Amino acid sequence: MNRMAEEQIEFGSKQWFDQLNKLCKFPGWFVFYIDTDRRVFSTYLKHTNAQTADRMQYKTIASYSDEMAIAGIKWLRTDQAYFEQCKHLKEVWSKGKVKG
């Protein structure tokens, strides 16, 4: 979550999980974005009735910047699942060019 990055909280620390659980409710929908510098961002979708990712309205998941792309839309049950998804995306997108 962007607020945690601004506060320089160590990724995966107890403080990071505490802040995550203050900002988000689990289970819930999350949209993950990658920017042109290969940084991972996410948005917690607090106000959606969609039951599946393909039912999301575009305005709900649209990027706020032309320099960001959607990397995934996930229903995550726990803060640990959120952590694992962030970790996975950071590992994948930090390895250089992704073939696709």
Describe this structure in words.
It contains four helices and three strands. By secondary structure, the chain is an alpha+beta fold. Strands 2-1-3 form a three-stranded antiparallel β-sheet, covered by helices on one side. It is globular. The mean pLDDT is 84.
- Uncertain runs are none
Number of helices: 4
Helical residue percent band: 25-40%
Structural class: alpha+beta
What's the total number of strands? 3
> How big is the Rg?
13 Å
What is the 3D shape?
Answer: globular
Alpha carbon gap, first and last residue: 26 Å
Order of helices and strands: HHEEHEH
Strands of the biggest beta sheet: in what spatial order?
A: 2-1-3
Binned strand content: 15-25%
Query: Mind describing the biggest β-sheet?
Result: 3 strands, antiparallel
Record the SSE blueprint.
Layout: H1 2-6, H2 14-23, E1 28-35, E2 40-45, H3 58-61, E3 68-76, H4 79-93
Antiparallel strand pairs: 1-2, 1-3
Task: Give a quick set of tags describing it.
100 residues; alpha+beta; three-stranded antiparallel sheet; 3 strands
Summarize the structure in short.
The two termini are 26 Å apart. The protein is built from 4 helices and 3 strands; from the N terminus they run ααββαβα. It has helices at residues 2-6, 14-23, 58-61, 79-93, and strands spanning 28-35, 40-45, 68-76.
